[in-house]
Every structure is written in structure tokens, then in C-alpha cells.
């Protein structure tokens, strides 16, 4: 039979999520690498029903996932400089697209979102003016002067979907995906990160991508990342209040800790922003970083900031569970995945499937 029922994009997505090569996938599924390559490139391939079932088993997805007409949302934007392996990058991208595809299907299954705010349209702001974009967004979204208390709530007020997802690695903290097919904006936060200050800055960084780079032609990655960071710093450390709070070239670690508690970002981000805005000299910047290293605060800072929790996505699941009466097995069926995949990608939202019950015969030992 022709494998016309298979969506070649879904086949590749499932393979990349597992970080499998075509060669390994072919060997495990019993399908030749040449046929698998043609299948993933959208060419006509003849597969027997049992071969399709074996391919789905190898890729650890229900057959229905490979047959669904959906397509991956987009290439997620996230910081990749610490990731050396192209296969690892592809694996993270695949996991994030899996998560968005699942959330899309569950949202489409009878849940509406209301948004008092709106996101800027692509191209509304010049990418090379991130500080101005942050200032205008603060004004348009009516944010108070000074610190942003709950950035997750701010994003959700414009119907941005914040998902807590297991990235499968600690190499990235957050990511952004824009979907061309429905216009929804997705912000994904890695459940493996537990530092609230790092999450807030990374989430603001991804918000910068949403405002400055959404659906626009790609440019130099280093430049795009720099623009997103500048946006994040301007949003969370607004110059009109933060700069005045930093005495010229007199910033100390003690003062930086006070600012961290106020603005909810890391000491390192505060020190870098103070230097970038010429509030401290290069020598003081270097000295403060040496002090961080001496205290072993580069990786584990004092004064932890609580992790912000999204509300929209849990509310969507609550509607399905409480109002619609759906079980997690039902939700997995809607999304064309297994309950195991739901738990793997959304460990804080779905419980691991329980063990299958086995039939046990009780034999009473007779007394001799």
C-alpha cells in the first residue's frame, strides 16, 4: 500500500524528537534507509500496514500521530550558543513543536481565550531599536512605572500562551514559537530550570523575539540574540527608574542584591545592564564579576526569586477535565499522542500513566 496516509513532516518530527538518525530508525523499524529518506522528503513510498505500525512503534507515537494533517508550527527561537550538537538542537526543536501541536489541538477542542491586550503586528517595531520597542510596549500594555511584578501574567494578558515544557535538556531555558496557521504565540519555559530570575529574563528575551522578529526574514543569529537581550533588559530594568537607582560607578554587590529583590532579575543581569548603560566603569564591572566568582554565585545566586506560574494553559486543562469531563487518556487521543508523551512533555500538568492491572489468581495455601 502507498504510505499516502502518513504525513512525512510528522514522521521526521517524531524521529528528531528522539534524536534518532535515519539510519538507526531504518534499522529498528525494518524499513530501508533509502525508503525512509524518500518518505521524509514527501516522495511516494509503498509501505505494508505492518511496516507503518512498526515505524510508529519505533518512533514511540501512536499511528494516528503520523497520519494527522497538522504540520510543525515553526522553527522555535531560543538561545543555542551553549549547544554544540546540531542533532540536540533539532531534538529540542522537535520537542517544542510536539508540545505546541498538542496544545493547539486541546485549545481547538472547545476552549476560547479572551485577551484585554494585543501583541504588536510583525514589523511594527524596528528590530535595531529594541529599547524603544520595550518602552512603547510598556506604555501600550499600561504597565506601571518600575518593576514588572509578573511577566508571565503580562504575556497571558495578550493571549500569549506560556507552557511549562520539559526540553529534554538543561541547555536552554525558554523558547518562542509563532504559528502561521492560527496566529497564536507560544512561550515555552523549561521545567528543568528552577531559578525564577533566569526564567524571567529568558521569558522577556523570548518576548523580544515575539515583538521584534516574529515571522520576519532571519538575519545574523548573534545580532538577533543581542537585540532580544537588549529588549529584555529595557523591559525588566526600565531606564527611567533602574538607571537612577544605580549610583555612578559605585554599584556594590550588596546594592545589586537589593535591586535583584526589587526587579526580579539576576545579579549578573543587573551588573551587565549597569555597564551597558554606562552607569559603572569597565573596571568596576570586572571587579563585581570577580566577586561573584569568588563567592561561587555565578551558578547559584543568593536571594532566589520565585518561579512565575502560567494560568491560561492550566485553565484550559481544567475546562477539559472539570467541565467537559475528559480524562487524560481522552486528551491524549484528541492530540494523537500517548498519555506517556503528555507526561513526558508536560510533567507538571499530567501524571504518569498508572501501571496496567494484571489478572492475579489467589491461591490459598492449605494447612497441612
How would you describe this structure to a colleague?
The protein has 368 residues and is mainly alpha-helical. 50% of the residues lie in helices and 4% in strands. The chain is built from 17 helices and 3 strands. The protein has helices at residues 8-17, 22-29, 33-40, 49-58, 63-67, 86-108, 130-140, 151-157, 196-212, 221-236, 239-245, 253-263, 267-276, 282-294, 312-323, 328-335, 339-345; strands at residues 161-165, 174-178, 185-190. It has a 3-stranded mixed sheet, with helices on both faces. A hairpin with a 6-residue loop joins strand 2 and strand 3 (185-190). The radius of gyration is 24 Å and the shape is elongated. The chain starts with 7 loop residues before the first helix and ends in a 23-residue tail after the last helix. Mean pLDDT is 90; it is low at 357-368.
Summary of the model, kept short:
The protein is mainly alpha-helical and 368 residues long.
Ordered list of secondary-structure elements with their pairings:
Layout: H1 8-17, H2 22-29, H3 33-40, H4 49-58, H5 63-67, H6 86-108, H7 130-140, H8 151-157, E1 161-165, E2 174-178, E3 185-190, H9 196-212, H10 221-236, H11 239-245, H12 253-263, H13 267-276, H14 282-294, H15 312-323, H16 328-335, H17 339-345
Parallel strand pairs: 1-3
Antiparallel strand pairs: 2-3
Helix pairs in contact: 1-6, 2-4, 6-16, 7-10, 9-10, 13-14
Amino acid at each position: 500500500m502507498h504510505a499516502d496516509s502518513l504525513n512525512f513532516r510528522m514522521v521526521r518530527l517524531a524521529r528528531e524528537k528522539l534524536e534518532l538518525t535515519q539510519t538507526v530508525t531504518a534499522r529498528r523499524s525494518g524499513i530501508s534507509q533509502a525508503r525512509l529518506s524518500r518518505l521524509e522528503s514527501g516522495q511516494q513510498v509503498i509501505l505494508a500496514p505492518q511496516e507503518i505500525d512498526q515505524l510508529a512503534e519505533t518512533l514511540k507515537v501512536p499511528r494516528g500521530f503520523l497520519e494527522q494533517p497538522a504540520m510543525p508550527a515553526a522553527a522555535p527561537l531560543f538561545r543555542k550558543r551553549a549547544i554544540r550538537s546540531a542533532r540536540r538542537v533539532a531534538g529540542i526543536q522537535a520537542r517544542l513543536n510536539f508540545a505546541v501541536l498538542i496544545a493547539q489541538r486541546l485549545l481547538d477542542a472547545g476552549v476560547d481565550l479572551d485577551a484585554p491586550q494585543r501583541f504588536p503586528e510583525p514589523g511594527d517595531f524596528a528590530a535595531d531599536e529594541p529599547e524603544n520597542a520595550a518602552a512603547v510596549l510598556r506604555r501600550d500594555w499600561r504597565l506601571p512605572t518600575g518593576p514588572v511584578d509578573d511577566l508571565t501574567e503580562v504575556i497571558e494578558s495578550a493571549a500569549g500562551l506560556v507552557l511549562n515544557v520539559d526540553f529534554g535538556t538543561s541547555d536552554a531555558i525558554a523558547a518562542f514559537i509563532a504559528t502561521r496557521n492560527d496566529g497564536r504565540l507560544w512561550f515555552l519555559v523549561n521545567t528543568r530550570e528552577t531559578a525564577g530570575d533566569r526564567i524571567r529574563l529568558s521569558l522577556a528575551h523570548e518576548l523580544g523575539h515575539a515583538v521584534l522578529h516574529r515571522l520576519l526574514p532571519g538575519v545574523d543569529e548573534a545580532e538577533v540574540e543581542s537585540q532580544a537581550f537588549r529588549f529584555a533588559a529595557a523591559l525588566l530594568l526600565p531606564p527611567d527608574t533602574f538607571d537612577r537607582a544605580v549610583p555612578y560607578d559605585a554599584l556594590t554587590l550588596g546594592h545589586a542584591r537589593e535591586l535583584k529583590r526589587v526587579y526580579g532579575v539576576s545579579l549578573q543581569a543587573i551588573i551587565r545592564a549597569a555597564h551597558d548603560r554606562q552607569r559603572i566603569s569597565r573596571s568596576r564591572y570586572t571587579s563585581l564579576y570577580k566577586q561573584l566568582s569568588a563567592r561561587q554565585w555565578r551558578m547559584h545566586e543568593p536571594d532566589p526569586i520565585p518561579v512565575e506560574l502560567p494560568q491560561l494553559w492550566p485553565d484550559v486543562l481544567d475546562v477539559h477535565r472539570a467541565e467537559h469531563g475528559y480524562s487524560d487518556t481522552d486528551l491524549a487521543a484528541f492530540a494523537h499522542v500517548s498519555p506517556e508523551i503528555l507526561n513526558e512533555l508536560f510533567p507538571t500538568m499530567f501524571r504518569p500513566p498508572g501501571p496496567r492491572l494484571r489478572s492475579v489468581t489467589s491461591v490459598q495455601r492449605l494447612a497441612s
